[in-house]
Amino acid sequence: MRAVRHLHSALRPPTGAQPPLVLTPDFTPSLEHPPTQQDIEHLAAHLGDDQGGSLLYQFQLGDFVLTWHDTSGPIASDAPDALERLRALPASTVQIGSIQGFGQYTNGLSDPLDYVEALRPGIFVPAHHDNWLAPLSAPALAYEPRLRQALAGLPNPPELRMITDPADYVRPAALTFDIARR
Known about the structure:
By secondary structure, the chain is of the alpha/beta class. It has helices at residues 28-32, 37-46, 75-78, 80-88, 104-107, 110-119, 140-152, and strands at residues 2-5, 55-61, 64-69, 94-98, 123-127, 159-160. It has a domain at 20-31 and 66-171. The protein is 30% helix and 16% strand. The chain is globular. The model has no long low-confidence stretch (mean pLDDT 90).
């Protein structure tokens, strides 16, 4: 197992590498299941955490390498040393990585793509999405067309395995992998 400290998502000036990504939020889940006072207090208590506790984890079992991170920060501009540490890791068989972040409003999917390029996964599973905090987030399927297009532009695009709420979260096959396959 390896752990790498990196950056939380952050709003940065546009670079022009990717067009902004502003999606239509769906307030239905928040209206049907509003956050509790305890939820709000928990979130507020952690807003000042250094980089949001941003750690990337990589697990290796033989040739199978699983990498997981729940935020994708502007590492290319703000932490090139972290980007180099990610590039030095073994290529990921599966990367489960955040695609929603504050950087999307000015730089689209640039930050998540930096992680995909550095980690070189065979399969990419988007995470930290699916309408968890409208209006800042939107349903996962709203990201899919732009994400497919962005990944297709990479030199070695990974297989995209989109998981969406609610069906995929209770379907084990969505995230079942043959650890002997590489």
